Amino acid sequence: MLSVELLGGLAIALAGMPFAGLVVSRYRASPPDTRRDLLASDAVKWLLLAVLCGYVVFVEGRPLSSMTGRSFDPSSFAIIVVTGTIVLFTASAVTTPLFNRFGVGGLEGEMSQLTSLSRRQRIFVAVTAGVTEEALFHGYAIERLLELTGNPLLAGGISFVAFTLGHAVGWNRGAVARIAVPALLTTVLYLIVRDVVALMAIHSLNNVASLLLAGAIATDSSGAGGVGDTAESADGAASQKDEPSQ
C-alpha cells in the first residue's frame, strides 16, 4: 500500500544521491582538488545511507533486514559474488569495443581523476560506491517497490532508470550510456539473488579491480590512451562519482 512513509523512503533512496551531488557541486570550493572533492562526495554517500537506515528504523519502524530479500550460506554467497563479478567484467569486455566502434563517449576524464588517488583512496571510493549505491537503489528501493507493486520488472525498471539518470548529473551522454550496462546487470542480478550484501560485494569488487587496473596502466603507460581504454573496459566502476559519481 502506498503511504507517505514509503514515498519518503523512496525519495531518499532514488533521488538522494543526484540531489546531493548537485548540492556538493554547487558549493564545491575553488580551486578544484580531486582528493577533497571525492572525500566530500563519499561522505555524502555514507550520510545518505545513514539517513536511510535511520528512516527505516525510526520512521517506518522496520528492521534493517527489510532492506534485503534474503541471505545465503557462506558457500552460496561466495559462488554468487564470484559469478556476478565475472558477469560484470565479461559484459565490459564485450560492450566496450562496441561503444568504441560507434563513437560513444568514454570515461577518460573521470577515470584520470580517480587514478591520481593513492591505492587506498581508490579502494575506499570503489567500496563506498558499491555499498551505498546497492543499499539505496537495490536493497531498499527494489524491496519496497516489490512490496508495493508485486512486479519485479516494474520494480527493477524504476530502480534502473533512477540509477542511470542519477548519473546524468555532470556526466556526458556517452558515459551515461556505458554506465547503463553495469547498472542494468546489477539490477538483474539483484532481482535474481535478492541479497543486497552479495550485490554490495559484487559491485565493490568490480569497482576495486577496475580502479586498481586503471591505476596500474596509468602508471606504466607513457600516454593518456592507457587510462581511457581501461576506464572503458571497467565501466561497472563508473558509479563511484555522483557529481562530476561507479
Automatic annotation (TrEMBL):
Pfam families to which the protein is assigned, alphabetical: Rce1-like
Keyword annotations of the record: Hydrolase, Membrane, Protease, Transmembrane, Transmembrane helix
Keyword Membrane: yes
GO terms assigned for molecular function: endopeptidase activity
Residues in CAAX prenyl protease 2/Lysostaphin resistance protein A-like domain copies: 123-208
Region: Disordered, residue numbers: 223-246
Annotated transmembrane regions: 6-27, 39-58, 78-102, 153-171
InterPro entries given in the database record: Rce1/LyrA-like_dom
One example of a Gene Ontology biological process annotation: proteolysis
This protein's name: CAAX protease self-immunity
Species of provenance: Haloferax larsenii
